[in-house]
Each structure stands twice: as structure tokens, then as C-alpha cells.
Write a structure and sequence with these properties.
Belongs to the bacterial solute-binding protein ModA family. This is Molybdate-binding protein ModA. This protein is α/β, with parallel strands linked by helices and 259 residues long. It has two domains: 28-108 and 219-251, D-Maltodextrin-Binding Protein, domain 2 (3-Layer(aba) Sandwich); 111-215, D-Maltodextrin-Binding Protein, domain 2, CATH 3.40.190. Helix content is 41%, strand content 20%. The chain is built from eleven helices and ten strands. The strands form two sheets. The protein has a five-stranded mixed β-sheet with strand order 2-1-3-10-4.
């Protein structure tokens, strides 16, 4: 049977399209990002935009910075690591597990005390605050205070205020800061200490008070490429530093490092 001219043109166009698209598919890569749990809302918006621009596929594993660092130490095939504090990045750098030249201080954040939407706001967090009374027999939700950055910052702030001894027996510790956020959001804990960006991501909580940055070490999110990363990892790290990504980070409550 002789094919019509229109049908032959359609087939030719299909074949040509397949040939021209093949290099794009072949050049696409999967990039595995290990990111602090507090980054979830922002990266859930940023990663798809990068995928659409580049054709690469981005997979993000969210957990506590400490957990992710230990997984990299054990050989997890991450390409990019974003920590919620400098210490865990320092550990990986000292062990030769990140590309030092790629390391960048990406973001900053603020620490806040949150409660349910009915919880009254406090003025300034000051020494002598009756925090145990505000808990009213409940627990203060915090990420692990000796391992997870948000918990470490929170403990340091409470110690600076002279409140740690008063409340440390009433702290409910969680694996990561988003789990602490969930305890307050569901009413399982009346108060919690999280990042400002976490509070903005959850409608069922509000900021009861902010901690002064002087009460704890600076909150800095360093990012770097893992030593064994795929070459395409640099493109994603570069994208995180673009104006488009910053608009998303800023909207979610993050700040520039040191601000």
C-alpha cells in the first residue's frame, strides 16, 4: 500500500523528533540531595523548577543533618549535602567526604518558640520567664538537643536564658525539627522550639516568641558537593544560589547567612 504524503510526513516528523530528543534524555541525570529536614517546604518547590529547566531528576532525602552526615560517612551515594549547621559539614570536610571548593554558606535562619494558634504571644524571651508554667504540665517539643542542629541551638538559647535546668525534664525530643513541629501542630505538645521557616510552613502553629540570635551560635546552612558526586550536582548547587531560588527561600522564612 502506498502511504499518503501527509502520513509519510507525520512518520518522518516522529522519527526526527525521536532522534533529536535522544541526546537530551541521554544527558539527563538523577541528582540525590541530602538536606536538613527544615528545608523540605522550600526544596519541594525549588527542585521541580530545576528539573523543568534542565531535564535532570532531583531526589531529595530529608532528615536531621546529623543522620544525613552519618549516612554519607557510611557510603550513601549522595551528590549534594545541605546541613543546618556548620559542625556536621566540618566533620565531612575533615574526612575528605565533600569537595571543599564547592562549599558555600547558603542560608541563615532564626529560632522561635511556637504554640498552637490559641497560645498567647509572649513579648521578649528573657531570663526568669516561667516557661514551666506556660507548659502547664505538658512538654516542650525540641529536636534532639545533643545531635540535631535545631535542638543544639535551642538548648544553647535556653541555657543562655538560665531556663534549661527549669525545663529540661519536660522536653520531648524528636529525631528532627519537623517532627517537633508536628507535635505542636497536632496538640501533642503545647510549645516547641523550631526554626522560623518551620513555623511559616505550618498553619496550625504560630510564633509565640523569637529568640535573640545572641543566645546561640549563628544558624548557618552550608551546602557542598559530596566527593563521589555526579558531575551534574554542581548545576543543582548553582541553582540554589540563583535569584529564583532565593525568592522561594525568602518566602519560606529563611535569611541570608549572618543577617
Amino acid at each position: 500500500m502506498i502511504l499518503s504524503v501527509a502520513r509519510r510526513c507525520a512518520i518522518a516528523a516522529l522519527v526526527f523528533g525521536t532522534i533529536t530528543l535522544a541526546p537530551l534524555r541521554a544527558g539527563a541525570a538523577e541528582i540525590l540531595v541530602f538536606a536538613a529536614a527544615s528545608l523540605k517546604t522550600a526544596l519541594d518547590e525549588i527542585a521541580p523548577a530545576f528539573e523543568q529547566e534542565t531535564g535532570h531528576d532531583v531526589k531529595v532525602s530529608f532528615a536531621a543533618s546529623s543522620v544525613l552526615a552519618r549516612q554519607i560517612q557510611l557510603g550513601a551515594p549522595a551528590d549534594v549535602y545541605i546541613s543546618a549547621n556548620v559542625n556536621w559539614m566540618d566533620v565531612l570536610e575533615d574526612e575528605g567526604l565533600i569537595q571543599t571548593a564547592s562549599r558555600v554558606d547558603l542560608l541563615g535562619n532564626r529560632l522561635v518558640l511556637i504554640g498552637g494558634t490559641e497560645q498567647p504571644k509572649i513579648g521578649q524571651l528573657e531570663p526568669g520567664l516561667a516557661l514551666d508554667q506556660l507548659l502547664d504540665g505538658g512538654y516542650l517539643a525540641m529536636a534532639l538537643v545533643d545531635a540535631v542542629p535545631a535542638g543544639i541551638y535551642g538548648k544553647a538559647a535556653l541555657q543562655s536564658l538560665g531556663l534549661w535546668q527549669e525545663v529540661h525534664m519536660h522536653v520531648a525530643q524528636t529525631d528532627n525539627v519537623r517532627a517537633a513541629l508536628a507535635l505542636v501542630a497536632t496538640g501533642s505538645a503545647p510549645l516547641g522550639i523550631v526554626y522560623r521557616s518551620d513555623a511559616q510552613a505550618e498553619d496550625r502553629v504560630h510564633v509565640v516568641a523569637e529568640f535573640s540570635p545572641d543566645l546561640h551560635p549563628p544558624i548557618i546552612y552550608p551546602a557542598a558537593i559530596v566527593t563521589s558526586a555526579r558531575p551534574e550536582a554542581q548545576a543543582f548547587l548553582d541553582h540554589l544560589q540563583t535569584k529564583a531560588a532565593w525568592v522561594v527561600f525568602s518566602k519560606q522564612g529563611f535569611a541570608l547567612p549572618g543577617s
